């Protein structure tokens, strides 16, 4: 019967695009804000 | 009619290589830039814990409901990420300002009547890397012109 | 070969110095300043004096990074760290080397001259691919995907940042990566297949290839990469029980297709034919997923709407979005000539009697028919039929599609082919049942006509089975498939309920009845 595609950890009911927070083919849930690079002002990169 | 298919030698050797790779699956952090403090490290938590992202957890409104300490934690420990960006935005909504020259945050005690070159009274905090914690800067006067 | 004496040591020394530059907590601006000093040092060491020397430097450095990772992995296998491996240490060598490479690429020649930059990028990508394939060959099942995955991904992220110097060559950068990913595609480097899909499905890669590249110019390259993946999976998906490594890759592929279905359905519409040509026929759900895509600006009427008049829908007469070269669906050959002759004159009848032998495959234990040829033939003949009907100012229905050269050929499949050949033929037709368009309309009529005119109940049963197996799998289901099945069980002209096989098992009968209830 194949897979229950709604149970693969993708928010398929999202009205917005989901690819920008897609965490990859083996991830069980989307990326969290702390996983995603963001163009922050260089001063924020305190290293 | 398309029943099971015996693999030819070529496909068999491909399967052997795939199977070997299966035991070295990419790790979640392999596909992310190096995070200095909190690398992505998925660990199994009890099923009754939140397993999926809280709805709207990637919005400023969500971050505004976090405590100030949490926002500063996110700002310092998750640099270069969307979380840091959202934490900074939420802090600014709490009238914190990031002082780019001194790499510290500043919060006015009260909104100034007029904004000019005068010094302002406020709370100045910075991150003390030696003691690895947030510190208040006592007796510090503020050079308004560096305000971000 | 023939590296100048001392180059290996010199390169390792330079790499170590570079890593120390990065270790000190610097801001991006300071790193760039330090890089210029470092470039000067590379120059003094003669690294930048010729293309050949840079190539050698890259190859030795890349190999150094790869060896580092292998060594760390080996150490961790010997003495597994208590708190689990800190992945970060595997990344250090690769990330710092790629940082150097990215700065070299961006700072080579003036900003307005992309060529030298692209040459360097292709050079390093070629070296990574070359080392990977050589290592894959030599290490066999001890091959480790991690270093190559890291080198390729971080290089892509660095080349994908929004900087003016990169903006002008984004498309060439993307092309270079797609080209490299083809060179190390899963059927060539199966030991790298999981990392390969990680890169191909990475959100930054998806964003660049599907959204940021203008005029969808990346879509063709991306479809080629996906077809490479389907072709690799094909032999392993023929069994209903999938081995764990295959199931993991299969489910990962499903996820990527779901993201594409949700965010870029037009992409799946455009390339559905090539995808279904490469996906094994028994891979029902994956194929349904692709065929369920429809343009986002389209509103599909509920297939269960009572008295739905499909032929009155606005879109039903428009040809579907598709990136297909109809002229090359069937390779130029005597068979193609005979086919065109038959379509034009509906003679000689020998074309029909020889059809099966033209499509059969003799020396391949894995298959008896050329599935790709059947798919191409069905679509080629069908589109010719649609054009002919349209030229007469008609629309497809049970009478306008009958008694034609096109229908002769289709009916020949149902009477002259064995069970397997018929199955592949019926699949080729059902693969055209998608969202409302002229192909869906014609091929839906076609299937219903073949059912009504079948010369044996076995054919009618097989048509029903083929539709059923596509309907009982988990969602999504293509709109065209649903409306065809509903028409078949609802319209008394097909006498569906009178057939023995409809009542062959209680659960089957119940299923038909439940579908019937929901649409009547």
TrEMBL record, chain A:
Superkingdom, natural source: Eukaryota
Protein family membership: Belongs to the CNOT2/3/5 family.
Protein name: NOT2/NOT3/NOT5 C-terminal domain-containing protein
Organism, as annotated: Leptidea sinapis
């Amino acid at each position: 019967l194949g897979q229950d595609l709604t149970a693969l950890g993708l928010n398929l009911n999202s009205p917005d695009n989901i690819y920008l927070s897609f965490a990859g083919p083996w991830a069980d849930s989307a990326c969290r804000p702390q996983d995603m690079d963001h163009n922050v002002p260089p001063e924020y990169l305190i290293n | 009619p398309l029943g099971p298919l015996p693999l030819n030698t070529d496909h068999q050797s491909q399967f052997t290589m795939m199977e070997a790779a299966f035991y070295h699956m990419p790790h979640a952090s392999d596909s992310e830039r190096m995070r200095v403090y909190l690398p992505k490290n998925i660990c199994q938590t009890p099923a009754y814990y939140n397993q999926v992202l809280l709805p709207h957890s990637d919005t400023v409104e969500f971050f505004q409901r976090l405590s100030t300490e949490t926002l500063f934690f996110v700002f310092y420990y998750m640099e270069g990420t969307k979380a840091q960006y959202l934490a900074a935005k939420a802090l600014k909504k709490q009238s914190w300002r990031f002082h780019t020259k001194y790499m510290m945050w500043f919060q006015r005690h009260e909104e100034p009547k007029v904004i000019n070159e005068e010094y302002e009274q406020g709370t100045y905090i910075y991150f003390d890397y030696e003691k690895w914690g947030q510190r208040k800067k006592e007796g510090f006067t503020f050079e308004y012109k560096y305000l971000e | 070969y023939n590296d100048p004496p001392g180059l290996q040591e010199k390169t390792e020394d330079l790499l170590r110095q570079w890593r120390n530059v990065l270790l000190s907590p610097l801001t991006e601006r300071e790193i760039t300043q330090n890089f210029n000093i470092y470039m000067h040092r590379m120059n003094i060491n003669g690294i930048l004096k010729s293309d050949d020397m840079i190539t050698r430097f890259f190859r030795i450095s890349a190999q150094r990074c790869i060896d580092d990772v292998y060594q760390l992995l080996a150490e961790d296998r010997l003495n597994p760290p208590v708190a689990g491996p800190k992945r970060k240490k595997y990344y250090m060598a690769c990330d710092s080397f790629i940082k150097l490479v990215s700065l070299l690429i961006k700072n080579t020649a003036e900003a307005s001259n992309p060529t030298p930059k692209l040459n360097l990028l292709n050079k390093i990508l070629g070296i990574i691919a070359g080392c990977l394939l050589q290592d894959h060959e030599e290490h066999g099942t001890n091959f480790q995907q991690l270093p190559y995955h890291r080198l390729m991904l971080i290089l892509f992220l660095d080349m994908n940042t929004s900087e003016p110097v990169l903006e002008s060559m984004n498309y060439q950068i993307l092309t270079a990566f797609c080209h490299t990913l083809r060179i190390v595609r899963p059927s060539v480097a199966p030991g790298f297949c999981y990392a390969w899909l990680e890169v191909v499905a990475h959100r930054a890669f998806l964003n660049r290839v599907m959204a940021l590249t203008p005029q969808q110019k990346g879509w063709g390259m991306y479809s080629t990469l996906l077809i490479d993946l389907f072709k690799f999976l094909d032999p392993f998906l023929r069994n209903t029980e999938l081995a764990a490594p295959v199931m993991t890759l299969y489910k990962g592929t499903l996820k990527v297709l779901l993201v594409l279905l949700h965010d870029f359905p037009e992409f799946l519409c455009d390339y559905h034919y090539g995808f279904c040509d490469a996906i094994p026929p028994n891979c029902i759900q994956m194929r349904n997923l692709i065929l369920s895509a429809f343009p986002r600006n389209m509103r599909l009427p509920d297939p269960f709407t009572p008295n739905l008049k499909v032929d009155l829908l606005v879109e039903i007469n428009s040809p579907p979005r598709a990136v297909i070269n109809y002229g090359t669906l069937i390779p130029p050959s005597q068979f193609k000539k005979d086919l065109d002759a038959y379509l034009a004159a509906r003679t000689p009848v020998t074309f029909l009697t020889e059809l099966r032998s033209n499509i059969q495959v003799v020396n391949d234990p894995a298959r008896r028919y050329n599935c790709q040829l059947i798919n191409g033939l069905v679509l080629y003949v069908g589109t010719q039929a649609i054009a002919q009907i349209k030229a007469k100012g008609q629309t497809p229905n049970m009478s306008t599609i009958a008694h034609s050269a096109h229908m002769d050929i289709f009916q020949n499949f149902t009477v002259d082919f064995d069970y397997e050949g018929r199955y592949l033929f019926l699949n080729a037709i059902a693969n055209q049942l998608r969202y409302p368009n002229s192909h869906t309309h014609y091929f839906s009529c076609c299937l219903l006509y073949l059912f009504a005119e079948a010369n044996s109940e076995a054919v009618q049963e097989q048509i029903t089975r083929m539709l059923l197996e596509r309907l009982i799998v988990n969602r999504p289901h293509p709109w065209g498939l649903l409306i065809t099945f509903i028409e078949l069980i609802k319209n008394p002209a097909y006498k569906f309920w009178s057939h023995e096989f409809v009542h062959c098992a209680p659960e089957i009968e119940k299923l038909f009845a439940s579908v019937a209830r929901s649409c009547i």
